[in-house]
Amino acid sequence: MIKQVRQFYQYLFIVAVIGWQFQSYIMQLPMDGLLGTSYLLNYMMAAAIFVTLLKLKNKHVDKLGFISLVGTLIKFVLFFLIFDPLFKEDGETTSSEFAIFFIPYVCATIIETVFLVRILNRQIN
Fold it and tell me: Per residue in 76-118, pLDDT tens?
């Protein structure tokens, strides 16, 4: 289990750093501020969800997919509670503002999903 967590964190960290740098460069945004907060929150949530999935894999292997979906729901709730009000201060949410949340969200969710599939495949075999 420790090996899986370490490997997950390594991939998560590498993708977060590369994505953060790349998105900051492409969108011409400072690395701190909302972009940094978005990456930090999305990747901290992904790490917490993954550890939760690992802890529950032996007792509730048949429910891991649903637990993962609940984690995704929590991330969206976080978006609507934290980021959406900030983005709507000017009355609308632009596509670049949406990308500040959505790109880190998608990257973290893909990594979570890949590692969840690995866990489930090992449980089946």
Answer: 898 888 888 888 888 888 888 888 889 999 999 999 889 888 8
How many degrees, rounded to 5, is the angle at CA 22 between CA 10 and CA 72? 60
CA dist., res. 59 & res. 64, Å (int) = 10
The answer to whether residues 12 and 47 touch, using CB atoms and an 8 Å cutoff, is: yes
Q: pLDDT tens digit string along 46-66? A: 999 988 888 888 888 788 888
How many CA atoms lie less than 13 Å away from 14 in the CB half-sphere? Answer: 7
Instruction: Give residue limits of the domains in the chain.
Output: 2-124
Burial of 10 (0-12, 13-18, 19+ CB in 10 A): exposed
Look up residue 51 and give its amino acid.
Answer: V
Cβ-contact 107, 20 below 8 angstroms? no
5-to-18, 22, 65, 120 alpha-carbon distances in Å: 20, 25, 18, 15
**Per-residue tokens: 125:** 């075999």
